[in-house]
Amino acid sequence: GLLVGATAAASAVVIFAYFLGFAAGSWAIGAVARRRRIARPLRAYGAFEFLAGASCVAFSYLFHPIVGALAPWQSLYSNPLLKFAIRFAFGGILILPTAALMGASFPLIAQAVDRYNLSAGRSWLRAYASNLAGALFAAVAGAYALLPLIGIRGALWLCFAICTIVFLICLIAGRAIESADFAPSVQSPSEPNANSDREIDHHAWTLLLGAFASGFAFFALEVLWTHLISTAIGNSVYAFSAMLATVLAGLLIAAFRVERSAEKHAAISYSRIFQLTALFLLIQLRFWDWIQAAYLVPLPAFLRNFYGVEGYKLLLAALLIVPSATLLGSIFPSLLRSPILERPGRSYLVGYLNTANSLGCILGAIAGIFLLIPALGAEWSLKLIILIALAMGMLFAFREGQSRRKLLRTAEGILLVGLCAILCRWDHRLIAAGLNVYFGQTQPTESGAAGSASSSSTPDSSSSGAKLVFFDESVQGGMTSVLELTNARGVKEHVMLTNGKFEGTDDLVQQGYAQIGVAAIPSLYNSNFGPSLLIGLGTGHSALALARLGYSDVDIAEFAPGVVRASRSQFSHLTEGVLDFPNVSLKLEDGRNVLASNSSRKYDLITVEITSVWFAGATNVYSKEFYELVKQRLRPGGVLQQWLQLHHISPREVASTVATVRAVFPYVSFWYTGGQGMIVATSQPQTTTPEREALLADRMRALIPGDPSMQAAVADRTFHSRVISPTGVDRMLASVPAVINTDHNRWLEYATPRFNWSETDWIPVNLNFLRGFDPGAGAQ
User: What's the pLDDT tens digit per position in 694-712?
Assistant: First the structure.
């Protein structure tokens, strides 16, 4: 994400490069093992684990230098295909080596099982299940314990330590096993039976096709689940962890089920697997919108804390995903039960199965990102997968030789499930309700504030009078919707939401004056009105403010096309069609990537207005490394403005954000206008003149409807809304210990979501905390 941007294409690059490396490693070991037996597979496995751990540490320390060298190359081509090819190459440089080493590990375990006659089929299943158990533990412990405590670099060092321990264990165990009297397989692989080989090769291709198909289907679904999970349990790193944990739990349950069936020598009915998969996917399809109702259930007092709420969300994710993941996940371990793999000298096929499965994962992920969601949307993509699973169920029913009566019943059930899937319809208004964002809460407004804290509110989209007037779905940005409703003041307004999270409104009193303020306040301190960069489009009102305040060029970085379409179609009355102004340039890109990939472009103002700091990936523009990049891209006398939420966040996180900015910029102040908080950072002292204030007030009139007295009042309130001055910030940081947020620790990304469930009105708490260090900050 830091190299190629926090976009869906970047995710595709990571998945593609990872599984390509995984497939390459598995294929290489399988090819070597097919030609000759690996003499010491357990030691070889340990050696590959050690190399994988060492590559993790190397990745940690080489990442930023490599990013600095590679990022500018992305601006050479504007063609999307060429840009994607370059990004894939970059992802490959960073990810392929470690992935290839990891891909080689499982086939080597299979070689050890085969070499030492350890009941191959069942042992491979146990190795597969053990690997999944470790992955499940890491998915949960990584997000909730390890990464918040030791950060990414610490976690990579931990990986190295674990891999080193594995290496030493394999070294010691390898010597002990090799010194024991383990007889080799009875049939030498160098003297195969020709007819038997042809039979094995025929069945091997069937196994490889099954491994490929299961990987394709599973990862196409995982892309859809990742896309949809934000509408059900939120956009935080914990939400992604929950989705990943439930997928891995399904795979782990499947591995245990297959192992138990192997113990009982039970036959596998693939027809039944596909039919049940389709049925559970249909149930899942029905509940993706209805799941919002779960957030209206009052939790008992002992669960009203971060871990209780996250546990509840994890339960909801499990109910949605685990059944389908279990059924689909049973296909690959079932293939490991094949009698072919238990024949002497055939363990190399495990490497080929791993390769085929990884290639299926690659194509499934790419199909989900670039074909299914863009062409069909998530709803119809799920329906298509259900219909394909039903068709596969019918096909295998024929191949399994079922009786005519049983085939007829099977066909009737398949027809009924398929018809239900086609007729099922999502209520997009429910999906846009966003009750998961703050666990069904709406944020109270601050008494006496210039405007309500609307960015923290969750509009009641299910109430009478709330009308869905716009809905857009894209793989980048998720589901963007616009509701038309009548607010508490009796004013009709349009509210933009992304996956149910508030983005903006056309009600000037509620939020619009804040959108003017984020452009006008930093303009008090910059030297010139040359190029400006807005990161995060929202409704587009801030972009209009920059244009009307006199900036010669306005660059906009917004990676969600749905937000752009909503701004154009639903907020043109507010923005005056600013996206079509000749001096306005829209870049469908991640904001940090825009800065990193073009070192020649310098700005007088960079203003950051992404939706919330607790979103997964948001810390990319709240880290010390980002601020250092911003400082490099500012002209002399330039200014950084960054919106910072004051709702659902505590003084500790506010202090951390301010301290991180202050670690780069010598002059930092904090402001609160229109119900919104913002940081202003400069390299020069933050002093202004009455002439500059009068100039900005005059230019702001075009943005504020009403009589001159109202325009003057808004300008005066805006320019005198400072909460803490640079001197007060230094005083605060001298007395309050604060964590510096970096790309390596990403502390804010893990700390801020812990307040989303909180019923405390944090706005006055945070304002009082800041004002306590600078009581006279409001005066200029």
Answer: 999 999 988 888 778 888 8
Q: At what angle do helices 651-662 and 762-771 cross, to 10 degrees?
A: 50
Question: Which of 319, 323, 363, 341 is CA-nearest to residue 128?
Answer: 341
Given the DSSP bridges, would you call strands 478-486 and 492-498 parallel, antiparallel or unpaired?
antiparallel
Residue type at position 543 = A
Q: Give the 3-state secondary structure of residue 640.
A: strand
Nearby residues of 382 by Cβ (< 8 Å), 6 or more positions away:
224, 281, 284, 285
- Rounded to an integer, what distance in angstroms lies between the CA atom of residue 644 and that of residue 621? 11
Instruction: Mention every residue, 6+ apart, whose C-beta is less than 8 A from residue 749.
Output: 236, 237, 614, 616, 617, 618, 619
Nearest CA-CA partner of 271 in 420, 421, 406: 406
Phi, psi values for residue 549, rounded to 5°? -80, -5
The number of residues in the chain equals 780
Q: What phi and psi values does residue 668 have, to the nearest 5 degrees?
A: -135, 130
Q: Within its chain, how far is the Cα of 452 from the centroid?
A: 30
Nearest Cα to Cα of residue 724 among 773, 768, 763, 661: 773
Provide the pLDDT confidence category of residue 190 given band limits of 50, 70 and 90. very low
CB atoms within 10 A of CB 58: 14
For 3, 358, 509, the CA distances from 753, given in Å and listed in that order, are 25, 33, 28
CA atoms lying within 13 Å on the CB side of residue 692 = 16
Closest C-alpha to 112, from 200, 26, 178: 178
